[in-house]
Automatic annotation (TrEMBL):
InterPro entries: Gfo/Idh/MocA_domain (IPR050984). Keywords: Oxidoreductase. It comes from the Eukaryota. GO terms for molecular function: oxidoreductase activity. This is Uncharacterized protein. Gene3D superfamilies: Dihydrodipicolinate Reductase, domain 2.
Length: 228
């Protein structure tokens, strides 16, 4: 996942939790969502390209994580074996445009690739799918690839009434709009179509802290909440 963030932007401020892995947290959350995972079992490597004006802030981060996968059992095995899933995450907030800075790297929009035993699944532009996206599924046996796009509806929202009175929502809604729809349902006391729990948010931040520790950087400063 790459971008070109101008100097002076708050995303570069350490005291405001700046850094590429923090701001581009989606790269990690994509992986955790795909695996239904909490935190990585191990971080085998984590390297950064530091910001020149503040080496505590990462311009870019390359991380190799290992998550626990599903338990598998071969026909001749008595007990199942705990599988492992390798995940490589790349974030860069200072990626230079090409051709003299004239053309942004549209092909590096936030994406995730998942390889299973039978298929390779690639989701292009998972963060801003309302602009354009596709999901390619390549069968590893036949080599055939099919493409899927989903701008509204789907397994979570297909039969849900939304705030506009239309089931499945509308094409062109950004991910923020879908979040708002879920939030409104929660406020009304209804069960949202999808919800990120407080626990899941904590696991996400614990994972990010672990990555910064592995890279030899200080973790981002938390905010103290005073009650009363």
């Amino acid at each position: 996942m790459t971008a070109r963030i101008p100097g002076g932007d708050i995303r570069w401020k350490f005291d405001l939790a700046g850094g590429s892995a923090m701001d581009m947290t989606y790269a990690l959350s994509f992986t955790r969502f795909a695996l239904h995972a909490q935190t990585p079992k191990q971080i085998t490597s984590c390297t950064i390209r530091p910001l020149k004006s503040d080496p505590r802030v990462d311009e870019a981060m390359y991380a190799h994580l290992i998550f626990e996968g599903p338990k598998t059992r071969a026909p001749n095995q008595e007990k199942p074996t705990q599988s492992q899933v390798n995940s490589r995450i790349y974030t860069d907030m200072a990626r230079k445009a090409v051709f003299g800075g004239l053309i942004p790297r549209f092909w590096e929009l936030p994406s995730i690739e998942v390889e299973t035993e039978k298929a390779i699944i690639y989701y292009f532009n998972a963060m801003m799918p309302h602009v354009y996206h596709y999901i390619s599924i390549t069968d590893k046996t036949t080599g055939q690839t099919r493409y899927v796009k989903q701008y509204s509806g789907g397994p979570f929202w297909g039969n849900r009434n939304t705030s506009v009175g239309r089931k499945g929502g509308c094409k062109g809604w950004s991910t923020y709009r879908w979040q708002l729809e879920a939030f409104v349902d929660a406020v009304k006391g209804e069960t949202p179509a999808y919800w990120v729990s407080g626990e899941d948010s904590i696991w996400q931040m614990e994972s990010l802290d672990s990555m910064y520790h592995a890279a030899g950087l200080p973790v981002r400063v938390g905010t103290e909440v005073k009650k009363g």
